[in-house]
Design brief:
The complex is a heterodimer of chains A (305) and B (338). Chain A is mostly helical and 305 residues long. Chain A is built from twelve helices and no strands. In chain B, helix 2 runs antiparallel to helix 9 and helix 3 crosses helix 7.
Chain lengths: 305, 338
């Protein structure tokens, strides 16, 4: 009988103990995977339920009276107004949204310039005597806790010039560097050596080969790396606590204190006021959607290769 | 020096070598900023923590009292808090993470493996503050409710008695092992909640490294064992896990590095008490949470310097931990396996 089904031949001779252990461990592995994935789904559902209504000022309590009642007070204040004074209702997080955009833009300048240069250096000059040092330091930087980077930026900038969006952006930029370095180096190494040799054989100097042939070939991957780095630091509040500091008004001046979405989420979630908690939940929903979309797009783009 | 380059066709050598050198110099200059950031960080943290370190010396790390009012600063309670939260969270998360990696790499069909892998990676993308918000609004009330039931005087008078006894001990800053597991009515916040949320936060780091190294295990290792009539679990436990062990260890240490420095989620839920750990369910603090909660308010130079010293300690600890993790992982990247 066992000869009739060659691939599963052994199965029929399995002792009950072995079969039971196999099933048990398989079950435990499935259960563990469910446990691992559950928090993500629970968090997302919680934020959808609590944040969506808060974001548009919907009144789900009146759901029984129909859609009109739910939407009766709906508005876009969340995106256009600043937080109401403590204890009052209404307002939004326009200050934090604008602050996050400004600081992320400034941080990308540091992260992209230094990170891409670092990646080029590691991939294109592997025999340079400084290469092992820069590789090691970049790896080490990746492990430094964000809050420690906040302390560093405080000492370097805030002590001299006071709290500012720029100081926060520097801290975030420093945090972006190792991520961009690593992804840039990896995609540059994927560009075939023959492409470089073809360029050099045409008589092009190495720098032109790097800038005009190698970099464009790897551009997609580099953009992916930058997006992942942005998604990573967009959610950081710890390094902003004592650099950007926060600002309840809209601020377009990078030398003044500035707010950011994660900062407002932190303040709101630890606040005793319902209204601040409401804004925090709506802010968390917005932040998490932005981050998920960014990282999914980035991963999809990198997977296509 | 007669190198093979002799035969290279002529090109405008002077021009290109000058521009090449300029470009290389520019790239090197920008790349050196990486080293500069690192050196500035050490310099900055070292300079600012010097007042506290010179005042308290190594006693800073063993002293239990952290009292800004009297100007006495010892970090033993925060170091203990950091180590306990990180190590316990690690112990819980590693089996879960490895199991989920096994599921993605060995059990799930492709149509399921990819989305599950995605979801686990998204877990790493959730910001710390969002974990903190969720823990504060969802998990903390549940734990608080559980403590109320646990201490219900009508159903469990003997537990309430034990709690009263422990509360007296805690008031004198004394700890016993028995009392460590007695809930201390704190509304759900505290050490246990910090451990729960840290466990979730570091899961994806171990899981993704474990998944990658499990996929590197050569297919013939599996086939050889299946051919001998092994069950799936026997293949996993005897062929796959031993082969991937060192790589998984690297992922575990990487997660430890994350756990040590994780700040806001922990700062929001751990209750911020600078007393030495009393109860698993009571308030505590970690080095990172104290930095987040106190640095902004630290007026006095010595207080501020002590907080920065916590930052320096964290810096050194995470650099060491990440270095070990990277060495282990680097030794296993494909060129080592082939």
């Amino acid at each position: 009988m066992s000869a009739a089904t060659p691939p599963a031949a052994g199965r029929h001779g399995l002792s009950p103990a072995r079969r039971a252990r196999n099933l048990l461990m398989g079950g435990l592995i499935l259960l563990s995977t469910l446990l691992v994935v559950a928090p993500l789904i629970l968090i997302f559902l919680y934020l959808l339920r609590e944040g969506f209504g808060a974001m548009f000022n919907l009144d789900f309590a009146r759901a029984r009276e129909g859609l009109g009642a739910v939407f009766s007070g709906a508005n876009l204040d969340f995106f256009t107004k600043t937080p109401a004074p403590e204890g009052e209702t209404g307002g939004g997080l326009a200050n934090a949204i604008l602050g996050s955009i400004q600081m992320l833009a400034m941080a990308s300048v540091i992260g992209v310039l230094v990170g891409v240069a670092g990646g080029i250096f590691l991939a294109e000059y592997p025999r340079h005597p400084l290469m092992p040092t820069i590789r090691m330091v970049s790896d080490v930087l990746a492990g430094i806790p964000a809050i420690v980077m906040g302390l560093v930026a405080y000492g370097l900038i805030v002590l001299q010039f006071g709290f500012s969006g720029l100081a926060g952006a520097v801290a975030l930029g420093f945090l972006m560097i190792p991520i961009v370095v690593r992804t840039t180096e990896e995609v540059l190494k994927l560009v075939p050596q023959t492409v470089r040799e073809a360029g050099l054989a045409l008589g092009l100097p190495k720098w032109l080969v790097t800038l005009r042939i190698v970099l464009p070939a790897a551009a997609g991957g580099i953009v992916t790396g930058v997006m992942l780095a942005l998604a990573r630091v967009a959610g950081e509040a710890a390094p902003l606590l004592f650099t950007a500091f926060g600002n309840s008004a809209i601020n377009l001046d990078p030398t003044k204190p500035m707010s950011a979405l994660p900062l407002e989420i932190y303040r709101g979630a630890t606040s005793a006021y319902d209204e601040n908690q409401r804004l925090a939940k709506a802010g968390a929903l917005l932040l998490i959607i932005l981050i998920f979309v960014t990282s999914l797009l980035a991963r999809r783009a990198s997977r296509r290769k | 020096m007669s190198e093979p380059t002799q035969t290279r066709p002529p090109r405008p050598a002077a021009l290109s070598s000058a521009s090449d050198r300029l470009f290389q110099g520019l790239i090197l200059l920008l790349a050196s900023v990486i080293v500069l950031v690192f050196v500035l960080s050490i310099f900055q943290l070292g300079r600012e923590s010097w007042p506290a370190l010179s005042r308290f010396g190594l006693g800073f790390f063993t002293e239990r009292t952290w009292n800004p009012v009297e100007g006495v600063f010892g970090a033993a309670a925060m170091i203990a808090g950091t180590l306990v939260t990180s190590l316990v969270a690690l112990a819980i998360s590693v089996p879960l993470a490895v199991a989920s990696a096994l599921f993605v790499a060995e059990y799930a069909p492709k149509w399921l493996a990819n989305p599950v892998g995605y979801l686990i990676e998204l877990l790493a993308a959730v910001p710390s503050v969002v974990y903190g918000l969720w823990a504060l609004f969802v998990i903390a009330p549940m734990l608080g409710q559980w403590q109320l039931t646990f201490f219900n005087p009508e159903t469990h008078p003997e537990r309430v008695e034990l709690y009263t006894k422990c509360a007296a001990l805690w008031a004198e800053n004394q700890t016993t092992l028995q009392c460590f597991f007695v809930p201390s009515a704190g509304g759900g916040r505290g050490l246990a909640l910090a451990i729960i949320i840290l466990t979730v936060m570091i899961l994806p780091y171990t899981a993704s490294v474990a998944r990658d190294v499990i996929r590197l295990v050569p297919q013939d290792q599996r086939e050889a064992m299946y051919a001998l009539g092994a069950t799936k679990w026997e293949v996993i436990s005897r062929a796959i896990l031993p082969y991937a062990r060192a790589g998984i260890l690297g992922g575990v240490i990487l997660a430890l590095g994350r756990a040590l420095g994780e700040t806001l989620a922990v700062a929001m839920v751990i209750g911020d008490s600078q007393d030495i750990l009393k109860s698993l369910w009571g308030n505590a603090s970690t080095m990172a949470s104290v930095i987040a909660n106190q640095f902004g308010d630290a007026q006095e130079a010595l207080h501020r310097s002590s907080v920065v010293t916590l930052g320096l300690t964290l810096f050194v600890l995470s650099v060491a931990v990440n270095f070990v993790a990277r060495v282990i992982i680097a030794r296993l990247t494909p060129k080592g396996i082939q």
